[in-house]
Amino acid sequence: MDSILKHKVIWITGASSGIGRALAIELAKYNTRLVLSARNMELLEQTKQFCKLPPNDILIIPFDLKNTSNAITMAAQIINTFGSIDVLINNGGQSQRSKADETPLDFDRDLMEVNYFSAVALTKAVTPYMKRQKSGKIIVVSSIAGKFGFYLRSSYSAAKHALHGFFESYRLETEKLGISTLIVCPGKIKTNISLSALNNKGELHGVMDPSHINATSPEECAKQIINAVLNNKQEIFIGGKELILIKLKRFFPKLFNKIIRKQSPY
Ligand SMILES: NC(=O)c1ccc[n+]([C@@H]2O[C@H](COP(=O)([O-])OP(=O)(O)OC[C@H]3O[C@@H](n4cnc5c(N)ncnc54)[C@H](OP(=O)(O)O)[C@@H]3O)[C@@H](O)[C@H]2O)c1
C-alpha cells in the first residue's frame, strides 16, 4: 500500500514549521518528490535538509499565502520540474488571538486570504493537471475551529468553516474525475500556531497556549494524515480530549453550549 505514495509529487504549503514540516519529513520516507512552500526560505531549506531526499527530488517555492496571484505560474513550474502534481496539501495557515469587535476589518480579510482563499487558488491551479492525469489528491488542513466558533478566533474560525463548504462541494464535483479530497481537522497540536497568531494590532501573539504544551506532536499528526491518505479517508480528526467537543456539539448541543462558554481562550 505504501507504493501509493512512491515517486508521487506532493506540494506542501506551510512546510517551514509544525505540521507541514513533519509531513514533509514523514512523506520523504516514502521516496516521494516534494515541493515545499512557506515564506521563510531559511526554514524551508532546513526542512529540505531534514527530508534527506536526493536534492533533485525537492523543489522549494517560497511565497506568501496572502498573495496567490501567481498560483498558475507556480503550478506550471512544478509541472516543468517534475512532470506531474499528484497531491496538494493546503496546510499553511495563521491563527488569531483577538476579539471580533476589536479586530480591524483588513485583518479579517487577511485571515480569510491566508486560511481560505489561498487553498482555493492553489487547488484551482493544480486541478487542470489532475484532471488531465485522471488522478490527484487535495488535502486541506482545517481545524476543530472549522466545526465550532471559539473565543478570540472569529475570522480564523470563519475561514476554517469556509474550507468545509468549498472542499465538500469540490469533492462531489471532482471525485468522478479521479480527484479525491481529504479534510483534516486537528484539535490541539504542539506547534508554533499560537506563537504566530495575530493580535488586533497585527502583531504576533508570541505566547504558546498552555493547552498546547502537552498536546499531540506534529510528528504523530503527520503519521495520522498519511494513514488517512493510504486508507482514502474523506475527513479525519486528530488530537486529544478536545475532540469530544465535536461530538457534543452534534449530539448534545445544550451541554456543548454550556461547556464551550467555560473554556479558556488559550
Ligand atoms: N497546531 C494546532 O493546534 C492546529 C490546530 C488546528 C489546525 N491547525 C492548522 O494546521 C496548519 C499548520 O499549522 P501548524 O500548527 O503547523 O502551525 P505553525 O507551526 O505556525 O506553521 C504554520 C505554517 O504556515 C506558514 N504560513 C503562515 N502564514 C503564512 C503566509 N502568510 N504565507 C505563507 N505561509 C504561511 C508558516 O510559514 P512561514 O511563517 O515561513 O510563512 C508555517 O510553515 C494551519 O492551517 C493551522 O491552522 C493547527
3D architecture notes:
The protein is α/β, with parallel strands linked by helices and 266 residues long. Helix content is 44%, strand content 13%. The protein has one domain (2-261): NAD(P)-binding Rossmann-like Domain (Rossmann fold, 3-Layer(aba) Sandwich). Strands 3-2-1-4-5-6-7 form a 7-stranded parallel β-sheet, sandwiched between helices. Helix 2 (41-51) links the parallel strand 2 and strand 3. Helix 1 runs parallel beside helix 2 (41-51), helix 1 crosses helix 7 and helix 3 runs parallel beside helix 4 (105-133). Bound molecules: NADP nicotinamide-adenine-dinucleotide phosphate (NAP). NADP nicotinamide-adenine-dinucleotide phosphate is lined by residues 14, 16-20, 38-40, 43, 64-66, 91-95, 114, 141, 143, 186, 188-189, 191-193, 196. Residues 14, 16-20, 38-40, 43, 64-66, 91-95, 114, 141, 143, 186, 188-189, 191-193, 196 line the site of NADP nicotinamide-adenine-dinucleotide phosphate.
Please work out how many helical segments DSSP would assign: 9
Name every ligand kind in the structure: NADP nicotinamide-adenine-dinucleotide phosphate
Average pLDDT, rounded to a whole number, is: 97
The CATH C-level name is Alpha Beta
User: Strand share of the residues?
Assistant: 5-15%
The largest sheet, given as strand count, sense and whether it forms a barrel, is: 7 strands, parallel
Biggest β-sheet: strands ordered side by side in the sheet? 3-2-1-4-5-6-7
User: Which topology does CATH recognise?
Assistant: Rossmann fold
